[in-house]
Write a structure and sequence with these properties.
By secondary structure, this protein is mainly α. Helix content is 82%, strand content 0%.
Length: 130
């Protein structure tokens, strides 16, 4: 399968997961998000900024305007998913599977992103031999 197509599929699945998460934070704040964050031991004031950060991170990954900004977005999602996995394991609620899937998707997306960037750089820089 074409790496670019695989990148788009995996990143699309990750995008769907993060958009569902961010929309739950915003639209189901009182019913789902706030009680879940309290149960996990996180402050509730972080919910709205986290939702905004997830959306902005997805924009940074898909727009790919700056390599550093894209790398920071990948790093932020990696930290977010790892901390979510750890928080769920810590309270023994067995609800870490979505975060684990998110971690696997974001690491796969990042791997393919780096492969595509290397291929783009290899093709764009002509080598002059003397």
């Amino acid at each position: 399968m074409n790496k670019k197509l695989l990148f788009r599929i995996i990143t699309g699945l990750f995008t769907a997961l993060m958009l569902m998460s961010a929309s739950m934070y915003i639209f189901q704040y009182d019913e789902v998000a706030a009680p879940a964050f309290v149960k996990l031991g996180f402050p509730t004031f972080i919910i709205y900024p986290l939702a905004v950060a997830k959306v902005l991170g997805l924009v940074a990954i898909w727009a790919n305007l700056s390599k550093k900004l894209t790398e920071w977005a990948y790093a932020g999602f990696t930290f977010n998913t790892l901390l979510a996995i750890g928080a769920h394991i810590n309270i023994h609620d067995n609800e870490y599977y979505a975060a684990l899937v998110g971690f696997l998707l974001i690491t796969s997306s990042y791997y393919l992103y780096t492969q595509l960037e290397e291929a783009k750089n290899d093709n764009s820089v002509p080598v002059v031999q003397l």
